[in-house]
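[Automated response] Your request has been received and processed.

Submitted sequence:
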Amino acid sequence: MKRVVTAAAALSGLAVVASVQAGVVNQWNLVVLGNWHNQSQDVEGNAFCGGNLTGGSPTIGLRLDRNVWAGRDVLAVAGSTSVSNINMQAGNFARGGSLSGNVNHNGGGITRTDATLGAQAVSYGSELLALSGSLRSLTANSIAQFPVGQPGAVRYQATAAPGGVAVFSVQSSQVFSNPLIQQIELNAGAASEIVINVAGTSVNFTSGNMVGDWTSAFARSKVIWNFYEATSIFLDRNFNGAILAPLAHLENTTAIDGSVFVASFNQRGEVHVPFYGGTIPTPGTLGLAGLSVLAMGRRRR
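Generated structure:
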């Protein structure tokens, strides 16, 4: 079976890579910058909504330890909330606007008002846009192989850069709307985390299934999909890894195993933990790392 190899631009051989914690993406399981419609679906971790929350009876904090999260906000909604019930399994519910519906504090928390949530949403939006742009500027060092001519698998072959970061660059139509793709495979190799930059304004995940390493705890917590220009994402397959799409409206019909950061959300499937546990390489630090290596070599001479 023939395959097309893409995104093969390699990083230079640096010995170290500087990185920083990614802030909001490490702190929340779900961030919706605008409006969120939840059709009675679970969010296993904590959730922030910068707009209005509507829907049926969402369950929030299902996998959180209520003792660890006692006194902390597990759900925050900057706008109004209009639901049948909210089932809070841990922590507090903070709201900036009106509330219509019942709040069941099964985890022992409280409902409180917070006038600062709107400003927090603006700050989160700026941070996520900056992060997405920073990830986009990373140079690809790993390849994705796609089936050509007959059905088969798309294979992500990670090559760890200094610091262990593997970077892919793909087109959304190649990965998510390719009728030849039967399954989606991952070989993480020695990578400690993976960034997948996805070009394209529309994402329609209707072909293929994530298998093998994609279903591991590593992929769910240390892979981030950066949909840096997407405005619409539809997921009709189980999805693994964190989703960063600060410009996009997301709709899912099945579970997402990993954290989610989007502009708006029609939630028709569950959002699962783990939280995103990666560190984000800053593009400028790659060059600084190289200079550091050269300096160390000169000192040894």
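Summary generated for your ticket: The chain is about 20% helix and 40% strand. Residues 50 and 120 are 8 Å apart (CA to CA).
If you did not submit this request, please reply to this message.
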